[in-house]
Amino acid sequence: RSKPASRRERLDWHRRDWVERRSILTADAVTAGSKAIGEETRKALWLPRADFEVVPNSVNDSVFSPLEDIGESGNPVVLFVGRLEWRKGPDLLIRAIPAVLERRPDVLFRFAGMDTLTGPGNTSMRSHLDSLLPSGAQSNVDFCGHLAPPELEEVLRQATVCVFPSRYEGLPMVCLEAMARGKAIVATNLPGFRELISDGETGLIV
Fold first, then answer.
1. At what angle do helices 90-103 and 125-132 cross, to 10 degrees?
2. Long-range pairs for 18-26: beta carbons < 8 A, 24 or more residues apart
3. CA nearest neighbour of 76 among 133, 161, 181
4. Residue 67's pLDDT is what?
5. How far is Cα 139 from Cα 12, in angstroms, rounded to an integer?
6. Which spans in the chain are helix H?
7. Which of 147, 161, 177, 191 is the right S-S partner for 36, CB 3.0 to 4.6 Å?
8. What percent of the chain has pLDDT over 90?
9. For the whole model, what pTM was predicted?
10. pLDDT at 15
């Protein structure tokens, strides 16, 4: 729902849309990562064709074997993986922390992802998230920053629950990786997540 900041930006957007639309209309075949992305693209670009072949993102589930994961002996870890940006919804998870800690004061909330300037007034989202935290909850929150693949594998291994509070998604790779790990999943009610998760069976949709 964003709007161009200037006439030049508006023209740039129209030009990109025109190029993308023309590419799709003249292509012999078109693929999409999910049904939702195909449908959204078709509507956004006013496309007469809808013969998108869905080729979902995939992971090698043998790499993410759950057999060596840390058991339930330690404190529960709620993991968010993604850029700290408005679209990914880390602020929604931050706002839920006090209610969770009322019932489970031993939970650790871990945020793995780089900071962005998508906080209020194009400021640091990390700083905005810090400002939303009650003082008593700060010791329960760990901001890891951007992680290299081996480090990401380790935090996934340690996670009890993986939360994806996104406001927009296609078919997120990290959610697939967490599912391949056998982790409990909580995700927002978006078409991309609904293609992956049966609510109450293979995860929770909120």
1. 30
2. 20/45, 21/45, 21/46, 21/47, 24/49, 25/49
3. 161
4. 53
5. 45
6. 7-26, 35-44, 90-103, 125-132, 149-158, 173-180, 191-196
7. 191
8. 74
9. 0.85
10. 95
